[in-house]
Amino acid sequence: HKGKYEHYMQKEIHEQPESLTTTMRGRLIRGGSCKAKTVLLGGLKDHLKTIRRSRRIIFIGCGTSYNAALAARPILEELSGIPVTMEIASDLLDRQGPIYREDTAVFVSQSGETADTLNALEYALENGALCVGITNTVGSAIARKTHCGVHINAGAEIGVASTKAYTSQIVVMAMLALAIGGDAVSSQARREAIIESLFELPRALKVKEVALMHSEGILAGEMKHGPLALVDENLPIFVIATHDACFSKQQSVIQQLHARKGRLIVMCSKGDAASVTVGGSCRVIEVPQVEDCLQPVINIVPLQLLAYHLTVLRGFNVDQPRNLAKSVTTE
Ligand code: UD1
Ligand code: M6R
């Protein structure tokens, strides 16, 4: 039920502090002063040894679920030390890409019923890989056919555009990284900082209303390899420049965009507004800073609201975009 909201998408965006709390419930253990903070994923505990021994972890999914995996990839590589590759399910099948017994294949799907992802799962099972599911729907085909997995427990998502499932998927994959990383001493401080940041996340998510515009995602490093040619005083550009290892790179991109008179909206960490407005005027959205691997969970919220308001203003159906179905059960 939509309750006080006009649309499911709006409801689901605003629900994220609660859905993330449910995703993490019973799975994060803070411990006493001398007890280390840990993660417990019941569905994986008997399989962690096998996962740690695998030669490669392959994330497989479609659409938003694929993108959630893309956001989680760096932390999984960092904490597990295992190479992580990405596959769009249909592309893996079209190529008949190699999969081996020594691989762990992680299937990310909100519905658990997406045909392409399901077909890729059958393919990975035939090739002997350990198959892990990250699904929102208990009893779904992907949840049943994977060897093991984690339910994201975000609650039913009705809006076709994935919002709360996306953030819960990222959080589960961060917890997966922590679980695989185990108790290596070298990364203990990092793991504890992430767990602390996970506890804080629902509170940090109380970010609200923002602006309105359409965008195409481009990595900072790619700007000068083409997209810079499009920039003029008419092109609205949304720059994500929250504090992380790439911040100085983003600052120089902002300078270049200012120099070409781009119409910038810059998303930055609280307190960084002055440094991102050097060299030209722009709108700024400050967001709370969290542990870098969880920053995508925060940064997506203004973008979700942007998509929502833009769609509503243009008079389109936001819960059911034309030509799309919530769950794509045909190839
Ligand atoms: C489970 C219970 C939860 C209970 C908790 C108490 C279910 C669905 N979950 O949660 O109600 O509160 O124990 O300890 O009964 N799985 C897959 N593929 C997937 C997703 C999950 O194979 O894509 C498997 C898991 O390996 C596991 C089972 O399904 O065997 C349940 O997974 P999950 O709900 O994530 O486990 P818990 O969090 O332990
Ligand atoms: O149910 P799934 O996560 O497997 O669905 C995959 C995609 O169809 C889905 O993420 C789609 O991209 C979104 N609903 C669009 O926001």
Automatic annotation (TrEMBL):
Superkingdom, natural source: Eukaryota
An example Gene Ontology biological process: UDP-N-acetylglucosamine metabolic process
Residues of the full protein shown: 182 to 512 of 512
GO molecular function terms noted in the UniProt entry: carbohydrate derivative binding; glutamine-fructose-6-phosphate transaminase (isomerizing) activity
Residues spanning the membrane: none
Its EC number(s): 2.6.1.16
Chain coiled-coil ranges: none
Catalysis: reaction(s): D-fructose 6-phosphate + L-glutamine = D-glucosamine 6-phosphate + L-glutamate
Lineage of the organism: Eukaryota, Viridiplantae, Streptophyta, Embryophyta, Tracheophyta
Residue ranges of domain SIS in the record: 47-186, 204-321
Stated name of the protein: glutamine--fructose-6-phosphate transaminase (isomerizing)
Keywords: Aminotransferase, Glutamine amidotransferase, Repeat, Transferase
Pathway as given in its UniProt record: Nucleotide-sugar biosynthesis; UDP-N-acetyl-alpha-D-glucosamine biosynthesis; alpha-D-glucosamine 6-phosphate from D-fructose 6-phosphate: step 1/1
Source species of the chain: Thlaspi arvense
